[in-house]
Amino acid sequence: MRMRAAVLEQFGQPLVVQEVELAEPGPGEVLVRLVACGVCHTDLYTASGADPSGYVPCVLGHEGAGVVERVGEDVTLVRPGDHVVTLFSPQCGECVHCRSPRTNLCLAIREQQNRGYLPDGTTRLSRAGEPLRHFMGTSTFAEYTVMPQIALAKISPEAPLEGAALFACGLSTGLGAALRTAKVEPGSTCVVFGAGMVGLGAVAGCRLAGAERIVCVDLSQERLRLASGQGATDTFVGGEDAVQRILDMTGGFGADYTFEATGNVHVMRQAVEAARMGWGLATMCGVAGKGETLDVIPRWLIQGRRIAGSSFGGLKGREDVPALIDRWIAGELDVDPFVSHRISLEDVNRGFELMEAQDGIRSVIAF
Ligand SMILES: NC(=O)c1ccc[n+]([C@@H]2O[C@H](COP(=O)([O-])OP(=O)(O)OC[C@H]3O[C@@H](n4cnc5c(N)ncnc54)[C@H](O)[C@@H]3O)[C@@H](O)[C@H]2O)c1
Ligand SMILES: [Zn+2]
Ligand SMILES: [Zn+2]
Which residues, other chains included, contact 109 with Cβ-Cβ below 8 Å and sequence gap of 6+? Predict the structure, then answer.
């Protein structure tokens, strides 16, 4: 079929919205009609050329939600009409990682996905007979996408798809970091560095986990206000003194759980140093720049602090995303404040501009 899609033609250049071809879903694959898609930093990171593993041309986008239109042979997990959230982090349910409760890093289609292909090593996207590569296995800056069934979370049809799209990446990453990776215990003290989509999700996750005290640190007062709305009990503007301020707030000990959601390696270090001696756990969500390293004094670790990394919040997407969306429908989460701008696919580059200007939390493309 022919459809409109936003193509990354050249690094550092605006995306070009144009007509491309999408082939029918193959065995185990699903054709999804996108209804909404968030614009995320990872899209911009790749578009800018900063991502060393990026490639062109390809169709960007990975925060999608939509409706199953058609299914290929042997598809058993979804049916036409099902509402779905796209998963850049799939869950095959069978590989050694999927069978372990300790990780969500499914191994099934990783290699081909990283190179821009569907699991069989080919693309469904093309233009004038030339293949066009997929991005993160999702390519949701488009009216339709073809994806493997293991990379779709079937969600409640009651959930508005505009808000559901945020669960495809940033929001779930923060929620999962608190609920899955750190497994925050009721009554604990948490600190979240960064109040973008990921950090605000982590604040909400700490609240859902029953944390008693949730401190949020950001550079923007406006974002700190949003953090208060998500359950932060204390907020302050970050800087060189952030660790000392947290120590002062916690009787000199530090927090039971800290979360880093800025992508800045200096803040990552603050998150480690603000974690409590004895058992404090610092969870890193941010993606640092190429070649950057995290500097940690080993004594901090000997004193019982631990560091965890978290990809997609440690969530096993097909199981955990629908469950989080049910909690949203049940009124436990407030997603509306995160949708700052509604834009059309034609305006996708404006979504990047708004993000660079830190104007709002998320721009969502409505199809
Ligand atoms: N691990 C994953 O699976 C995953 C998924 C999505 C995004 N990410 C990464 O998570 C990070 C956050 O994503 P986002 O969409 O929320 O980004 P964002 O840019 O919207 O938010 C980052 C926030 O950090 C704040 N900040 C910057 N410097 C600070 C400082 N010194 N002290 C305190 N706050 C500071 C900014 O003011 C901003 O509000 C990014 O690095 C992103 O690439 C990781
Ligand atoms: Zn797997
Ligand atoms: Zn993302």
Answer: 90, 92, 118, 119, 137, 148, 150, 151
Task: Identify the structural domains of the chain with CATH numbers, from first to last.
Answer: 2-168+334-366 (3.90.180.10), 174-310 (3.40.50.720)
Ligand 1 atom at shortest distance from the alpha carbon of 40: 15
Closest-CA residue, ligand 1 atom 28, reads 262
Beta strand pairing status for 2-8 and 63-71?
unpaired
pLDDT digits (tens, 9 = 90+) for 33-43: 999 999 999 99
Q: Is the dihedral of CA 85, 90, 91, 94 positive or negative?
A: positive
As a whole-number percent, the residues of the chain with pLDDT over 70 amount to 100
Give, using CA atoms, the residue closest to atom 37 of ligand 1: 219
C-alpha of residue 167 to centroid of ligand 3, in Å: 10
Q: For residue 104, which of 297, 306, 312 has the smallest C-alpha distance?
A: 312
Q: What is the pTM of this model?
A: 0.97
Question: With a 6 A CB cut-off, is 311 part of the ligand 1 pocket?
Answer: yes
Which are the contacts of 344, defined by CB distance < 8 A and separation ≥ 6?
365, 366
Both tokens of residue 192?
């979240």
What tokens does 241 get?
């003194």
Residues with active-site annotation: 40-42, 62-63, 92, 95, 98, 106, 110, 169, 362
- Each residue's pLDDT tens digit, 318-346: 999 999 999 999 999 999 999 999 999 99
